[in-house]
Amino acid sequence: MAPLLLPMAAAFLLLLLPVILSATVVDDLRNLRPPPDFNSTITGNCLRNPSLRYCGNSRPLGGLDEIFKFTVVASHLCNESRNPNCVESFDKIDLRGRPKIAPLYLSFDFFWKYCPLSIQSIDFSNNSLRGEFPTGVLACAQVRALDFSHNELSGDFPVEMLASLVNLTVLNLSYNHFSECKLSESLVFRRFNSSNFVHSGLIPNKQSFAVKAMFLMIGLPLMVILLVGFMAMLCFRRRNLSLESRQPRHHFTTSMLKVATSGFSRENLEGKSDGVDIYRGILRDGTQARIEIYWSDISTESMRKFVEECEVLVQLHHKNLVRVFGWCNDREMRAIVMEWTDGESLEIWLTERAPQLKHRLTVLVGVMEGMCYLHELWPQVGYDLRTSSIILSRNLEPLISRFEFDSRNSISKNKHKFGVLLLEMITDIGKMGDIEGGEAGFIEYIRMNFPANLQNLLDERIMIGSATIEQARQVIEIGLACIDHSANEQLKMDWIRLILLRIYRACHANGSPNHGRFSGDRDKRHKHGQ
């Protein structure tokens, strides 16, 4: 076996050895320096044994500092591997089960570059090494045994570099995570014992190969068929989306409403009546919507009028009108899509909340503002002013939620509706007993008892005082004027609004300090485009 350095350097290493053994290899690499005659010693060694890896043409290759570091690491590695004679030479590197120092020695590329020719066996097994295989070790081309089993090595193994290790007879790479090599490359491993590649991941598994072949024969055609089917479905879906995109901005298709209501599920069904289902839905932009679906069949002409009416409704924008988002006029059904409001109806509010007069006037002024907006800009649009059809938002803003397109719609008719609403908001229908004749009987009863029996007409829950009674009297007076046909013709909408605002301000001026959330300058709120 070739000497580690050269016989002439043995005396130097004998002196160096106690120092090396008393310090770590890292400390020695940092602190030790080559002796003065190190250059001549290395040169002489190359002249006597040119086959040494740090020699070239009988001259040292590389820097002397690097060669010196190689000698320091070699001395440490020889002792760590428990070789019997570390002065002359050593034949094995054995760091199995040494996970704390094994990665360090593998990182010394300068050592593996000049790997001693005497090394015949290298063992780095059972060290939990990670990452790719350390190819620097393969510079020890004379090695006969190489063991890197029981580690966590991964990636591609450098199969092509094994060709230079002509003396290698034992190669153990079992229990690692290498990438499976090609079938042609796997032939290289036949010169070694197959048990040394157990669970290494390198050797192609015959059973796995059969499964892959079966997949290519059966699975691949099946996948192509599924892909073609998916592409056809995607094209059909894109066609539907294209059709939807060409629809007017406010037009909804049946498929869009199905998505919004989870397939018209029972959980989304909020109400049901003759021919009408009311759903709560969520539109594409996340907006909650009230979707009224009409299942009755109508003629083509009626459907055309339905669309024309909806085209008007989507243009209405006012804080006291429920917003209409759009409509659906597919073959299967027709529907109106409007904003969802979580508030309660005016009818429930009057019955269960017992609001004070000032709060009732706040609501009436809001309804009047919505009426003025429609009267001035959309006179063809009628509306329902029954207490069951007016919704109160969470901040008690009244919302007109029912619209009509009737040839009999007129300003006089709308003022009559508002007059009835005024009477219902102020009086106590409950203590009037059973009134025959419906709305007409109710109006006649008010006329018979006003103003003589005013206090018997008023709702006691509005906290009646002398000022309140006078304001309530004025509201009933306006209501009766709106209902009276001869007076109705003379009344202007702006005049009704002005008188109502004066009563509203007077009531709030006399009200308690806690009326703040309902008060304010209602003139400022009369903005039609809000």
From TrEMBL:
Keywords assigned: Membrane, Signal, Transmembrane, Transmembrane helix
SMART domains: TyrKc
Keyword Plastid attached: no
Pfam (any one): PK_Tyr_Ser-Thr
Highest rank taxon of the organism: Eukaryota
Domain (Protein kinase): residue spans on this chain: 264-530
First and last residue of the signal peptide: 1-22
Chain ranges passing through the membrane: 213-236
The protein, known as: Protein kinase domain-containing protein
Organism whose genome encodes this protein: Eucalyptus globulus (Tasmanian blue gum)
